[in-house]
Design the sequence.
């Protein structure tokens, strides 16, 4: 049968969307393992790539998550490819065809996820330069934080992958832990001095003031 001849596009018809190979390629990542890198400048709002996979119900999703955790506990691959799309369904992107599964998380991502009628699109949140790595926010729940250390390197990164609305809690906990460490070191020297103890419960003094207080302690 002769191949159908393509008809010229009328000016009112929208231009076909370029497929992902136009925008990105798979390469080594600066964040983790492999990642997805821009081949060219990607304009803000461009639908770059679709996250494809098998649509599964929540029960099946939980079963697969348990299997993933067991694999991880045995030292195997613990990468998460299951994508939450609605209250009833998830998409398991563990298929070779799904190149979007290589996109890493960042706490300051350059892409967003747009779920349209059950299909998952990765969309540029801003202009992305050629050579930049694509990232989006995985949005993992807070209670899973110890399982997902983050190496995105962005300024506000709390060190773990958790949904953006909860990151302040981790930052606050980290600050408290730092504060506790600093004050307990100081406390060892200042032990038995109620006045200093009271001051310690607020904020550790800056280092030069700390020195002055110690000198004062030794002089009395
Ligand atoms: C869907 S895979 C992404 C592809 C991954 N880079 C690879 O080579 O397999 C998701 C896994 O990548 C890792 N990952 C993604 N973003 C990360 C980040 N910001 N910091 C540390 N690991 C990350 C985690 O192990 C996560 O479970
Ligand atoms: Zn991060």
Sequence:
């Amino acid at each position: 049968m002769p191949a159908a001849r393509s008809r010229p596009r009328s000016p009112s018809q929208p231009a076909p969307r370029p497929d992902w190979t136009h925008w990105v390629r798979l390469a080594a990542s600066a964040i983790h393992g492999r990642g997805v890198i821009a081949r060219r400048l990607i304009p803000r709002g461009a639908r770059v790539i679709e996250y494809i996979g098998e649509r599964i119900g929540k029960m099946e999703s939980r079963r697969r998550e348990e299997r993933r955790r067991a694999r991880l506990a045995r030292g195997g691959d613990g990468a998460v490819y299951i994508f939450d799309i609605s209250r009833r369904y998830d998409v398991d992107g563990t298929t070779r065809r799904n190149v979007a599964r290589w996109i890493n998380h960042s706490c300051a991502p350059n892409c967003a996820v747009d779920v349209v009628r059950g299909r998952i699109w990765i969309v540029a949140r801003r202009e992305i330069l050629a050579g930049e790595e694509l990232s989006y926010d995985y949005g993992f729940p807070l209670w899973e934080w110890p399982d997902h250390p983050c190496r995105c390197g962005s300024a506000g990164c709390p060190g773990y992958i958790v949904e953006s609305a909860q990151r302040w809690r981790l930052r606050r906990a980290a600050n408290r832990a730092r504060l506790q460490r600093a004050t307990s070191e100081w406390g060892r020297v200042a032990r038995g001095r109620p006045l200093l103890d009271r001051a310690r419960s607020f904020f550790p003094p800056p280092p030069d003031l700390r020195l002055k207080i110690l000198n004062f302690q030794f002089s009395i």
